[in-house]
Design goal:
The complex is a heterodimer of chains A (309) and B (487).
Chain A: H1 2-26, H2 34-44, E1 48-53, H3 56-59, H4 63-71, E2 77-81, H5 89-92, H6 96-101, E3 106-111, H7 129-140, H8 148-159, H9 188-197, H10 210-224, E4 228-233, H11 238-242, H12 246-262, E5 267-269, H13 293-308
Parallel strand pairs in A: 1-2, 1-3, 3-4, 4-5
Chain B: H1 6-21, H2 25-44, H3 48-67, H4 71-109, H5 125-140, H6 150-158, H7 160-163, H8 171-179, H9 198-230, H10 238-269, H11 287-293, H12 296-307, H13 317-335, H14 339-361, H15 373-395, H16 399-410, H17 416-425, H18 427-445, H19 448-453, H20 457-473
Helix pairs in contact in B: 1-2, 2-6, 3-4, 3-5, 3-6, 4-5, 9-10, 9-18, 9-20, 10-15, 10-16, 10-18, 12-13, 13-14, 14-15
Classes of the chains: A alpha/beta (309), B mainly alpha (487).
Chain lengths: 309, 487
C-alpha cells in the first residue's frame, strides 16, 4: 500500500511539473506580448543595431534622441531601447538568445543598485544555507519561474479574447510603454521624503548574488558571439543613495569590481552625474521628457566613444 | 524555512528517507531534533540561540520544581522560568514599542528621545515560549512529570512542523507520543519508533495538499485585492471596504489554517498527532463560539494560563467581564507590538463581554429563536459581520485609515458604481473569494479530508495532481511569508 501511495505522489509531482514547465515555456511570450513580434521582425533586418538593455532606469532613455546624437557621426546605426520595467540580469538572461538573434553591433547594459538587490538578513553572522541552495537552483533551473501566475492569467485572457499588448509603445522601445507622469518632475524635498520612507535595498555579496552570476554569464555569452558591450552605471538621486547602508554600497562596488575583473569592456558611470539636479520623477528615475535630455546626450557620447574604439 | 518553498520539500523528503531507513528510536529523535534545529537555523540564523536558551531554562527549572518540596522555592523557580521566557519575548518583541511610547510621553515632558534598538523579531518566539511556559506551569501545578531526557524535551520545543507558527502544543500531549508502546506497527519493539504508516501518509499528504492549496492558491492570490483596498482604504466606498475585510478574513484564514494543516499533516506523516487549530471558524454562531473554533491552541492556552488564573468566571460578573477584556487585549498584544492589535483584541474582548451580558440578562426563552435553523444562520451572519469588522484594525496600522475603513464598514454609503470599478480591478481575487466561500459551505457538512483520503489511489493521485497544477500555475513567483510568522 505504501509503495502505491509513494508512486502516486511521484507520478502526480512528475505530471504536474512537466505540464507546468511545458505550459510556461510555450507561453513565455505572453509576459510581454510584443516580444515575439519585435524579435521576429527585427532579426530579419540588416541595420547596425545598438541595444540599450536594463530596467526602468534605462527605460527613461529616449532611443530616438540618442540615435540623433549617434547618426551625426555614424548615420547607419539604429538605437533600440529594450528596457523592461523591474528587469534584472537574472530575468534578462532568459531572453539572451533572442537578443543575439538581432545581431547587434553594440550593447549598452545599464545597471544600478536595484539590479543586484534582494531580500537578505543583514545581521546574520553565521553562514546562511539558503544562498547555497538558492544559487544551486538558479544555476540549474530549466527556465526562470518569474511569475507563472501572470502567464496563466494572460493565457486565460487571450483565450477569452482580451488583448494584452500595452499602448504607448514606440517602435524602437518595444517593451517599455511611456506614461505621461514619466515627465513630471518631483520636488527634491519630496524626493528626500520618498527615499527615506521606501524599503531600503539589500545587496548580497558577490558570492551569493544571483544577478551578478547572471550578468557575468550574459557578458560571457555575448562575448562568445562577438558582440561588443559597455556597462553603464545608471544615475541615482542623492537622497536614494543616502538611504542605502554603507555595507550595501560596499557590496555593490565589489560587484562592479568583479565585473571589471571578469570582462575587458569599458565601465561608464553616470551614478553621481545628476544626483542633485532637478530632473527626477522619482528617487530612481530621471524624467523621460525634455528635462532628461542631458542623460540622453551623455549616453549618446558613451556610445560614440565605444564605436570609435 | 518556509513551507511553501522547494527547500522545504527537499528538507522534508530528506527527513522522511532518513527516518525510514534508520529505525533506531534514539537516532530518530536525535535526527528529528537536529533536523528541526536546521529548519529553524535556515531562516533565523543566530537567533536559534534564543530557542536553545528557552529549552535549557525550562528543562532544568522544570526538573528542579518537580524535585523540590518547598513551595516557596517552587514559586521562585516558576518566576525564574516566567521571567526568562517573558523577558525574552518582551525584549525581542516589545522593546521598540516600549521605547516609542516612552519617547512619546517623554517628548511631552521635554525629555530627549531614546534611539530605537531595531531588533529583528525572532521567528516563532511567541509560539515556543508559550510552549515552554505551559510545560513549567503544568509541572508546578502537578499536572505533568518533567521530561527525563533533554533530547525529548528539546524535540517537544523545536519539533519543526509546528515550531514557527504553532499549533501551540502542550507537553502532556506531545511527550507521551515519543514514548508510547508499539502495538500495531512492530510487536518486537517495545518503545515507539517512528514508522511511516500508509494511512498516516495518505491522510498527512492530503492535509498538506489542502494546506498548500489554502495558502498558495487562495490566500496568496487574494492578497493583491486586500493590499489594494486595505493598504490605503481612504477613498474606497462601503462595499469595497467590506470586500477588503472579507478578503482579508479569508486570506488570514487560508494562510494560517493552511499553515496549520501543513504542520499537522507533516507531523502525522511522522506519526505525531498535533491538536486541531481551526474548526470552521466562519460558521461560529457567537463570539465565544468563534474563539472555540479560531486558533484553538492559542485560545485554550490563554484560557488555561491567563483567564483561569485571573479568576475566570468564578468571581463576580464584573470581574468576569474585566477578565475577558484583559485576556483578549493581551491576546491582541501577543500578535504584535502595535496599537492596531490592541484594538483588535479590545474589539473581540467587547464582543465576548456583550455576548456574556446578553446571555446573563436575557432569559434563554427569548433567545430560543437563535437555536432554530434560520436563527442559527442569522446568528452566524451577525457574528461574522463583527468578526470581519475586527479584521480591519488587524490589517491596517494607521489610526486614520482604521477609523475611515471602520466607519465605511459600519455606515453604508450606497456608492455602488465605485464598487464596480473595485470589482473589475480585482476580478481574479474576487473570483477566488467566491470560490473559497462555496468550498467552505461544502465543507461545512462534509468531512472533505476524510472523503479525499478515502479515495481510491488513482482518484487520489488525480486530486494531488489537480492541487499541484493549481498551485504551480497560479504561483506569483514570490513565496509569501505566512502571516503568523510575524507574531
Amino acid at each position: 500500500m505504501k509503495k502505491y501511495i509513494l508512486l502516486s505522489i511521484i507520478i502526480a509531482f512528475g505530471f504536474s511539473f512537466s505540464l507546468f514547465l511545458f505550459f510556461q515555456q510555450a507561453n513565455w511570450d505572453t509576459l510581454n506580448p510584443n516580444t515575439q513580434t519585435f524579435y521576429l521582425q527585427n532579426s530579419q533586418e540588416n541595420d547596425s543595431k545598438i541595444l540599450l538593455i536594463g530596467s526602468s532606469h534605462i527605460g527613461m532613455l529616449n532611443a530616438t534622441s540618442i540615435e540623433l546624437v549617434i547618426n551625426k557621426k555614424y548615420p547607419d546605426y539604429s538605437v533600440y531601447n529594450l528596457a523592461i520595467s523591474s528587469d534584472k540580469p537574472s530575468k534578462r538572461i532568459h531572453e539572451l538568445e533572442q537578443i543575439i538573434s538581432l545581431n547587434p553591433k553594440l550593447i549598452i547594459y545599464g545597471v544600478g543598485y536595484r539590479d543586484f538587490s534582494n531580500e537578505q538578513f543583514d545581521s546574520n553572522f553565521l553562514p546562511d544555507p539558503k544562498y547555497f541552495i538558492g544559487n544551486y537552483f538558479f544555476e540549474n533551473s530549466p527556465i526562470f519561474l518569474d511569475n507563472p501566475k501572470l502567464i496563466t492569467l494572460n493565457v486565460i485572457k487571450n483565450t477569452l479574447g482580451y488583448q494584452n499588448i500595452p499602448e504607448n509603445l514606440e517602435k524602437n522601445t518595444p517593451f517599455f510603454p511611456y506614461k505621461e507622469e514619466y515627465s513630471n518632475i518631483i520636488d527634491l524635498n519630496e524626493l528626500e521624503k520618498k527615499a527615506n520612507s521606501g524599503k531600503s535595498i539589500k545587496i548580497s555579496s558577490i558570492k551569493e548574488n544571483k544577478d551578478l552570476i547572471a550578468l557575468n554569464k550574459i557578458f560571457s555569452i555575448l562575448n562568445e558571439n562577438n558582440i561588443e558591450n559597455v556597462l553603464l552605471l545608471t544615475p541615482h538621486n542623492s537622497h536614494f543613495v543616502n538611504s542605502i547602508s554603507e555595507n550595501n554600497k560596499e557590496n555593490f562596488s565589489k560587484i562592479i569590481d568583479d565585473i571589471s575583473l571578469n570582462n575587458s569592456f569599458p565601465i561608464n558611470s553616470l551614478m553621481k552625474n545628476y544626483s542633485n539636479s532637478n530632473i527626477w520623477i522619482s528617487e530612481n528615475h530621471i524624467s523621460h521628457g525634455v528635462d532628461g535630455i542631458q542623460y540622453n546626450n551623455d549616453v549618446g557620447q558613451i556610445i560614440l566613444l565605444a564605436l570609435e574604439k | 524555512m518556509l513551507f511553501n518553498t522547494i527547500e522545504f520539500i527537499l528538507f522534508f523528503i530528506t527527513v522522511l528517507v532518513s527516518i525510514e531507513f534508520v529505525r533506531n528510536r534514539k537516532f530518530q529523535h536525535l535526527f528529528l531534533l537536529l533536523g528541526s534545529y536546521f529548519f529553524f537555523y535556515f531562516s533565523s540564523n543566530y537567533l536559534i540561540t534564543l530557542l536553545i536558551f528557552s529549552t535549557l531554562l525550562d528543562f532544568y527549572v522544570g526538573k528542579a520544581i518537580w524535585n523540590s518540596n518547598n513551595q516557596k522555592y517552587k514559586k521562585l523557580l516558576l518566576c525564574i522560568s516566567l521571567g526568562g521566557n517573558l523577558g525574552l519575548l518582551g525584549f525581542f518583541k516589545y522593546v521598540d514599542f516600549g521605547i516609542e511610547q516612552f519617547n512619546f510621553i517623554g517628548s511631552m515632558l521635554g525629555y530627549d528621545s531614546i534611539p530605537f534598538l531595531n531588533i529583528a523579531l525572532p521567528i516563532g518566539i511567541s509560539f515556543y515560549t508559550f510552549q515552554t511556559i505551559s510545560y513549567t506551569v503544568d509541572i508546578y501545578r502537578g499536572h505533568l512529570k518533567p521530561s527525563k531526557s533533554l533530547t525529548e524535551f528539546a524535540l517537544f520545543v523545536s519539533f519543526f512542523p509546528q515550531l514557527v507558527a504553532g499549533p501551540i502544543v502542550r507537553a502532556k500531549d506531545f511527550l507521551p507520543q515519543l514514548r508510547e508502546k508499539m502495538t500495531s506497527f512492530n510487536k518486537n519493539i517495545k518503545l515507539r519508533q517512528i514508522v511511516l504508516n500508509p494511512i498516516n501518509l495518505k491522510i498527512g499528504i492530503t492535509l498538506m495538499a489542502l494546506g498548500f492549496l489554502k495558502k498558495v492558491f487562495f490566500a496568496d492570490n487574494i492578497s493583491p485585492l486586500v493590499n489594494n483596498i486595505l493598504g490605503n482604504p481612504i477613498g474606497y466606498d462601503s462595499l469595497s471596504i467590506m470586500l477588503g475585510a472579507l478578503g482579508y478574513g479569508i486570506k488570514i484564514y487560508g494562510d494560517f489554517s493552511g499553515y496549520s494543516d501543513i504542520a499537522i499533516g507533516a507531523a502525522l506523516i511522522l506519526g505525531f498527532k498535533l491538536p486541531m487549530n481551526f474548526n470552521k471558524p466562519y460558521f461560529a454562531t457567537s463570539p465565544s463560539d468563534f474563539w472555540k473554533r479560531w486558533h484553538i491552541s492559542l485560545s485554550s492556552w490563554l484560557k488555561d494560563y491567563l483567564y483561569i488564573p485571573l479568576g475566570g468566571n468564578k468571581k463576580s460578573r464584573h470581574r468576569t467581564y474585566a477578565n475577558l477584556l484583559t485576556v483578549m487585549i493581551l491576546g491582541g498584544l501577543w500578535h504584535g507590538s502595535s496599537f492596531n492589535f490592541i484594538i483588535w483584541g479590545a474589539l473581540h474582548g467587547s464582543y465576548l463581554v456583550i455576548h456574556k451580558l446578553i446571555n446573563d440578562r436575557i432569559p434563554d426563552v427569548k433567545l430560543s429563536f437563535f437555536k432554530t435553523k434560520f436563527g442559527k444562520i442569522i446568528a452566524i451572519l451577525i457574528t461574522q459581520y463583527f468578526v470581519f469588522l475586527a479584521w480591519i484594525p488587524f490589517r491596517i496600522q494607521n489610526p486614520d485609515m482604521i477609523l475611515y475603513a471602520m466607519e465605511k464598514y459600519l455606515f453604508f454609503d450606497f456608492q455602488v458604481q465605485q464598487f464596480q470599478t473595485t470589482l473589475s480591478e480585482n476580478l481574479f481575487s474576487t473570483v477566488l473569494i467566491i470560490l473559497f466561500i462555496i468550498l467552505n459551505f461544502i465543507s461545512y457538512k462534509k468531512n472533505i479530508l476524510e472523503k479525499i483520503s478515502n479515495l481510491r489511489i488513482f482518484y487520489w493521485m488525480l486530486f494531488l495532481s489537480g492541487v499541484m497544477i493549481l498551485i504551480l500555475f497560479f504561483f506569483d513567483g514570490n513565496s509569501e511569508d505566512f502571516i503568523y510568522f510575524k507574531f
